[in-house]
């Protein structure tokens, strides 16, 4: 049962990260050069139109980090054990997708190619640690309440 739960957690985390990145790209109307909701359907043409816009790629790094953090939080909430490890798995999968993007489409600036390695793992780790800290505090609070309970 844990395998199914963990698989669903990873899929939910990836879905949330992808949704946040998609919404982030659509946040600025001057960047929207496509008709469909998801920019990934016309990604090559979209990247070609953005290849000289350094602000777009900086924002893409930021929104990717935010999406990976929230996706890592969602994954860590759903899984039962190894919360940080599964959150980092979200970062690894997102990094793999970003590396494929950089390899397949040659329109990314150099700073973006380097920065993706510094974005996905740390931000997904932060997402997992957020949940781990919250769960640990709640656990300590329950223990303290049990100990202070009048008999």
From TrEMBL:
<protein>
    <submittedName>
        <fullName>Uncharacterized protein</fullName>
    </submittedName>
</protein>
<keyword id="KW-0812">Transmembrane</keyword>
<keyword id="KW-1133">Transmembrane helix</keyword>
<keyword id="KW-0472">Membrane</keyword>
<feature type="transmembrane region" description="Helical">
    <location>
        <begin position="86"/>
        <end position="108"/>
    </location>
</feature>
<feature type="transmembrane region" description="Helical">
    <location>
        <begin position="55"/>
        <end position="79"/>
    </location>
</feature>
<feature type="transmembrane region" description="Helical">
    <location>
        <begin position="7"/>
        <end position="28"/>
    </location>
</feature>
<feature type="transmembrane region" description="Helical">
    <location>
        <begin position="114"/>
        <end position="135"/>
    </location>
</feature>
């Amino acid at each position: 049962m844990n395998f199914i739960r963990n698989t669903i957690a990873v899929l939910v985390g990836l879905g949330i990260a992808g949704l946040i990145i998609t919404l982030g790209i659509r946040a600025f109307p001057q960047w929207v050069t496509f008709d469909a909701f998801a920019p990934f359907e016309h990604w090559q043409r979209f990247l070609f139109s953005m290849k000289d816009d350094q602000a777009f790629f900086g924002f893409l790094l930021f929104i990717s980090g935010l999406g990976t953090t929230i996706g890592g939080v969602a994954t860590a909430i759903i899984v039962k054990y190894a919360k940080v490890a599964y959150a980092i798995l979200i970062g690894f999968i997102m990094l793999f997708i970003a590396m494929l993007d950089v390899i397949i489409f040659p329109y990314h600036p150099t700073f973006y190619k380097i920065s993706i390695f510094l974005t996905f793992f740390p931000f997904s780790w932060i997402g997992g640690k957020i949940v781990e800290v919250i769960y640990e505090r709640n656990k300590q609070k329950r223990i303290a309440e049990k100990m202070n309970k009048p008999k």
